[in-house]
Design brief:
Membrane topology: Multi-pass membrane protein
Family: Belongs to the cytochrome ubiquinol oxidase subunit 1 family.
Strand content: 5-15%
Radius of gyration: 24 Å
InterPro entries: Cyt-d_ubiquinol_oxidase_su_1
Helix content: 55-70%
Number of strands: 8
Shape: globular
Order of helices and strands: HHHHEEHHHHEEEEHHHEEHH
Protein name: Cytochrome ubiquinol oxidase subunit I
Number of helices: 13
Largest sheet: 2 strands, antiparallel
Structural class: mainly alpha
Pfam family, one: Cyt_bd_oxida_I
Distance between the termini: 38 Å
Length: 474
């Protein structure tokens, strides 16, 4: 749906908008923004868990096995929270946007049906994997974790397919405003699917990797510089650092696809009111009454990035019909979200390059370089900010359409009842679930620290030699 709220409404058309449009937008923005944070952990934390598990079995590494066991418990908690928030989102689609589901549910709902299958598959194998510690043969247990990661990838692909279809709908035949034929394969594998899916999948590994690395970086800053923390930090941080350059290339490719297929969104990204060539890249700035103010302009750069030559013509907002043209406020939100996404990506890349240099020249200082550890810890928060900004670009950039070219957001929203109390109830539910999840995770890590690693038996594999201990978990 849309992450737009009060800032994205056009005052001149406010009277024409249904009264429920604002609360519906606000609720969808909040619930989607909350849920999207959990998605990377369902996809990538389980992969990090399997990497540690494989190392533990292959190399006889007791610390890696311990990390895998603990990460599996964290993944289970986040999976449960994601199940709750995802279920609420599925109900919201029908309650808040009845025309979307009524008119286009036969197409839009297909990827969600596939996602449901992956969800149940993931739930089954999460239970098997958690139960399997101490009860199954080592490698048989490892393989029960593989479907967990694969199902997470499949579920992500399904949700991204639905979102990509809203941006570039295909696979349907519409007559007199009604869908009369659906081609499921074309709906799922629509023109925007592959790049959006790859972008989200890589983002999952970046977010999960930097968050996990950040947790252990904080532990190292607090003096816990044992091997347990080093392995935990390197597993997460190196995964994210390796994925980041690939993501930047994929992101640049997507921007060029948006230039070709979604000119209104691209004009908002570039904050471009009028069509022209030799278009500068505008950093910051705002669009006020159709004019860009306060931005820093890099001559010809937008045209160069879009078409590899300064003479490339880029369509401005004026080329979009007035009744479906993004407002100045919507364009500003998309532009700033894009700048934040790109800016945070390069900040994280700088930290990743710093890590590579330290690993090459001063590997022994990694655990003691406090400025690097602070930067690595901050990457966890920065990565989440980057993720949220990217989804704002996708969702607000589609406005005022909910299905581009077919259905306007204001025409899809529910028109009966008062949605504000519903929003308030959902807000309280999500805050309660989020607080409970943080409390559970904090209790788990506190218990691990108080027991000490030496008090926690190795799941299987080599026991620690007598008289040896390891450090505390963060």
């Amino acid at each position: 749906m849309t992450t737009a709220g009060a800032l994205t409404r056009l005052p001149a058309l406010a009277a024409a908008d249904p009264a429920q449009l604002l609360p519906a937008r606000e609720q969808m923005a909040f619930t989607l923004g909350f849920h999207i944070i959990l998605v990377p952990f369902g996809v990538a934390l389980t992969t990090l868990m399997l990497i540690a598990h494989w190392r533990g079995l292959r190399k006889g590494d007791a610390e890696a096995l311990l990390l895998a066991r603990r990460w599996s418990k964290v993944a289970a908690v986040l999976f449960a929270v994601g199940a709750i928030t995802g279920t609420v989102l599925s109900f919201e689609l029908g309650i808040l946007w009845p025309r979307l589901m009524g008119d286009y549910g036969s197409a839009f709902g297909f990827p969600f049906a596939i996602e449901g299958l992956f969800f149940f598959l993931e739930a089954i194998f999460v239970a098997l994997y958690i139960y399997g510690w101490d009860r199954m043969r080592p490698w048989a247990h490892f393989w029960t974790g593989v479907p967990v990661s694969l199902a997470g990838v499949g579920g992500t692909a399904s949700v991204v397919a639905a979102n990509a279809w809203m941006n570039q709908p295909g696979g349907i035949t519409v007559e007199h405003g009604k869908v009369v034929a659906v081609r499921p394969a074309e709906v799922f594998f629509n023109d925007a699917f592959w790049l959006e899916f790859l972008h989200m999948l890589i983002a999952a590994y970046i977010i999960a990797g930097f968050v996990v690395g950040g947790v252990y970086a904080v532990g190292m800053l607090r003096g816990r510089r044992d091997r347990h923390h080093r392995v935990g930090f390197l597993t997460g941080f190196v995964t994210a650092a390796c994925a980041l350059p690939v993501q930047i290339i994929v992101g640049d490719t997507i921007a060029r696809q948006v230039f070709d297929d979604e000119p209104a969104k691209f004009a908002s990204i570039e904050l471009l009111p009028a069509t022209g060539d030799h278009v500068p890249e505008t950093l910051g700035g705002v669009l006020v009454d159709g004019k860009v103010r306060y931005g820093i302009k890099i001559p010809d750069m937008a045209s160069l990035l879009a078409g590899f030559k300064p003479s490339t013509t880029i369509k401005g907002l004026e080329a979009v019909p007035a009744h479906v043209r993004p407002t100045d406020a919507q364009a500003n939100i998309v532009h700033w979200a894009f700048d934040i996404m790109v800016g945070t990506s390069f900040l994280m890349l700088a930290v990743a390059l710093w890590f590579a240099w330290l690993w090459w020249r001063r590997r022994h200082t990694l655990a003691t370089n406090r400025w690097f550890l602070r930067s690595a810890a901050a990457c966890g928060i920065v990565a989440i900010l980057c993720l949220e900004s990217g989804w704002v670009v996708t969702e607000v950039g589609r406005q005022p359409w909910i299905v581009v070219g077919h259905l306007l957001t204001r025409d899809a929203v529910a028109t009966r009842g008062n949605l504000w109390p519903f929003f308030g109830a959902v807000l309280l539910l999500y805050l309660a679930v989020g607080a409970a999840a943080l409390w559970v995770l904090r209790s788990m890590t506190r218990r691990w620290r108080q027991q000490g690693d030496e008090a926690v038996s190795v799941p299987y594999g080599p026991e620690r030699p007598a008289g040896t201990t390891t450090g505390k978990a963060s």
